[in-house]
Every structure is written in structure tokens, then in C-alpha cells.
Amino acid sequence: MSPTTRTATSSTTTRTAPHSLAIAAYGLRKAYGDKTVLDGIDLTVPTGSVFSLLGPNGAGKTTAVKILSTLVRADGGRVRIAGHDIDADPQAVRATIGVTGQFSAVDGLITGEENMLLMADLHHLPKQEGRRTAAELLERFGLTEAAHKPAATYSGGMKRRLDIAMTLVGSPRIIFLDEPTTGLDPRSRHTMWQIIRGLVADGVTVFLTTQYLEEADQLADRIAVLHNGTIAAQGSAEELKRLVPGGHVRLRFSDPDAYRTAARTLDQVTRDDEALALHIPSDGSQRALRAILDRLDSAGIEADELTVHTPDLDDVFFALTGNPASDQNMEAAR
What we know:
Structural class: alpha/beta
CATH superfamily of the largest domain: P-loop containing nucleotide triphosphate hydrolases
Distance between the termini: 24 Å
CATH architecture of the largest domain: 3-Layer(aba) Sandwich
Number of strands: 15
């Protein structure tokens, strides 16, 4: 990992045992001409988890997905997918993974069922098994009623559901989802989130790139921020938020005497006399909260409300990359 990489906790520097990793990439490098896209990055994804890769436009997210899914060869580094070396045994890797790209692989000229059966043929499934698998997946993704309609007539959300259903025909244990909800309306996006959570509940590992910061916050067990070809930071969403200054604990009191006593007892407080509330700088960690509560207990003070406020992923993204993120999304790497 690059010396400049910021880790949210010391645990992020400890390598997980190889047998528990679905994806393990160390020192991954890729350049196109004189432009270095990936500059020795490390990525490890535990089995049965959701890992999200964030980054500004051109950061290299899609390049990373293409390398990990055997579509592009890296210039350097070591990669193992489901225990298979990606260079020595790419066919074994391909048999384990599924990929849903930014652009739908659905053929709009044929029906949803025919798209599914085509994928079954590509996976060399026996005809009867292919039809059974197609029917089960169409039902699972709520597409049974539309199965015999041309896919061109499907809504954007239906096409994305069909796309992922097609990816699952081969029963992959690791799925790469490259911006799966781009262009979907909020309802369809939330439906897709439920699908992803269901996949993980079944033991599938999901590697997700997204242009929606809220999406990573909602879904990912771990998040890595890619910037200038390196990993700027990685950790859980909560851990990443603690990297950015501005977090605080808000204490509100109904008793004015308790409020004044707490203001004298605690350090670095900002007072709101009208609301009888105190703001104390904090990273939101358990240790920091315990220190505040211990000080209050020792003074015999009890707050009526305690609220932890931490920066959101927009703040984290801006602080780490220097690129402003919009309220709902950011430009995706191409």
C-alpha cells in the first residue's frame, strides 16, 4: 500500500487470511502510454461482503474492474480471485465470477426469457436445466410477467434487473457490478439495493463501483477511495467519516443548572444557550464518547439527549480527492 494511503483504523493494514478472501490484489499497476491509471494499489475483499470502489472521473475504477475480471491485463502486481491466480488460471477465475458493466448487455430485440436462455447456452447448461434456471431467476427478479415481451419494452430498472439475472445464470460466487444503478429512478435504485443485499445474504461477494455516494454508504461493508492512481483511504463508511474534521457530539439539557455545570466541566465546548445544548468536537468513536460520559458522570450530570454528528461521504470524498461531489452523485470513471 502506498505510504500516503490513509487508513481509518489500524486493522486496515492487517491482511486477512488468504482463504477468507474472495479478491486479493497487491501492487496492482496499469498505464496507458505515459498515463499511469493504477499505481500499485492493494485491494482485499472478504468472502460474502460488499466492497465499494469510489473515485472521481478518470480515477481508474473501471480499469480496476476490467483487470480483476480478466478483461484487461495488469502491467504489474499479483491478483487472486477465489483463490485462483488471475494470470496463471484466468479460465478458473471466469468460471467463478459474473460481471455487470455500466452499459446493459441485454439484447432488446429478443424477449427477457430468450436473453436468459442465451446466457444458459453460453454457460453450456443442459436445455432443461437452462430453462429451469431462467424461470427461477426471472421469478426472483420480478420479471415473470414480462418474460415473453421484447426487452426493448422494459423500463430502465427492469433492464438492470434482467442484466443482473443474466449474470447469475452461471451461479457466480463473486459479482462485479460497475455502476449498476446509474440512470435509474430512486425507486428502482432502492429495488436494486434490495437485490444486492439478497445476493450477499446468499453468500455472494459483491465488488461495486458507483457514482452514488449514498449507495456506497448504504451497501458497502468496506469502501476504498481511488485518487490519482492510488488508494487515498479505505475502511467502513463510519471509519472513513471519522477521517474528516468536523465531527462533534451534541448534548442537550432541560435543566439550566446542569447545562452550565456541563459547560464548565467539559473541554472545547461550543454553547447554544437558547437551546441549552453543547457541541463538543469528537470523532464519534466509542473511546471519545466514553470520555465525555465519564466526565459527566464524575460531575453528577446527566444530559437529556446525546447525538453524534459525523461528516458524510460527500465530505470525505471532497477532503480526499479535492473534487466537489454533488448532493447525490459524482462523475464516474470511464
